[in-house]
Amino acid sequence: MANNISVRKSSGEKQEFSEEKLYNSLRNSGASDEIIHSIIIEIRKYLFEGIPTRSIYRKAFKLLRNQVRSTASRYSLKLAIMELGPTGYPFEKFIGALMNRLGYETLVGQIVQGKCVTHEVDVIAWKNDHKILIECKYHNLPGKICSVQVPLYIQSRFLDVKAAWERLPENRSMNYQGWVVTNTRFSDDAAAYGKCAGLHLIGWDYPRRGSLKELVETTRLFPVTAISGLNKKHKQILIDNNFILCSDLSVNPKALDLLNLPPRQLKALKTEIEELL
User: Fold this and answer.
1) Cα–Cα nearest to 34, from 1, 54, 64, 72
2) Residue 123, by phi and psi: left (phi above 0), alpha (psi -120 to 50) or beta?
3) Is 129 exposed, middle or buried (0-12, 13-18, 19+ CB in 10 A)?
4) pLDDT band at 102 (very low <50, low <70, confident <90, very high)
5) 126 FRET partner, CA 20 to 30 A, in 23, 40, 224, 266?
């Protein structure tokens, strides 16, 4: 049994191992109870004092992939988003596509004139009378935290752009909001500042409702890096050719020709993509 085993998070913090958390993460990926319990039994044998949580989830992913590839792809979603680098632009496109799924029109990577200076804005999203300026903070390593300096800086940029937007007659009925979206987490001070200043913060598991993890799972917007049948080199080829989402590959099936895969592997890959969508 795994009673009283301490595990080490990517931040360095230690906490007691929770089978319930592991069960829930596997359940959220769509795995059946039978598969989940078989994986937990194997994980119990694998545990030792101070084991990194990342090692546990990698082991669970490997066990899950041996049984159901598409389910394993959903389970490894956090890691998949971290693999969208090395630059932050694919993550910005991903967030733009996510906002599209939520019913917003979007522009990605825009230069916008503020009241005082110009700003490079990652994503602008709008729907009806609601307009959002979104700053994307992408990290390709676990354990990275967005400190309070991030929302402090973004709030000042948002207010400068908002002041310019409000001067335009066509924007008189608009409501504006600033967002910061990261694929990791915010410090406690950053979260407190966001609440106080009215700046909406979205992290991997923050806020409790409407976190990045929840939004991705509910919209079923999976990046190409989530495909377990691709190696790192193949994923990077797709990203370099501007294929960021699994849905991009569904719309443009010829994109897979870039990978020069044998027919059998290509067929398995198409099946996994269909199951993810």
Assistant:
1) 64
2) beta
3) exposed
4) very high
5) 224
**Token couple for 152:** 């402090």
Task: Count CB atoms within 10 A of the CB of residue 101.
Answer: 15
* pLDDT mean over 71-85: 80
Contact yes or no for 213/77 (Cβ under 8 A): yes
Beta-strand pair 185-186/145-146: parallel
Q: Is 253 helix (H, G, I), strand (E, B) or coil?
A: helix
Q: pTM for this structure?
A: 0.76
- The helix or strand, by DSSP H or E, that contains position 8, with its residue range, turns out to be strand 6-8
Which residues have C-beta within 8 Å of that of residue 105, sequence separation ≥ 6?
125, 126, 127
- Report percent pLDDT > 70 for the chain: 96
Cα separation, 55 vs 61, in Å, equals 10
Dihedral sign, Cα of residue 179, residue 181, residue 185, residue 187: negative
* CB-based contacts of 70, cutoff 8 Å, min separation 6: 30, 272, 275, 276
A 10 A CB-CB count for 79 gives 15
Q: How far apart are the C-alpha atoms of 238 and 227, rounded to whole Å?
A: 12
Q: What is the pLDDT of residues 205-238, one digit of tens each?
A: 999 999 999 999 889 899 999 988 899 999 999 9
pLDDT at 255: 92
Which of these, 166, 161, 171, lies nearest to 134 by C-alpha position? Answer: 161
* Contact present, 147 and 135 (Cβ < 8 Å): no
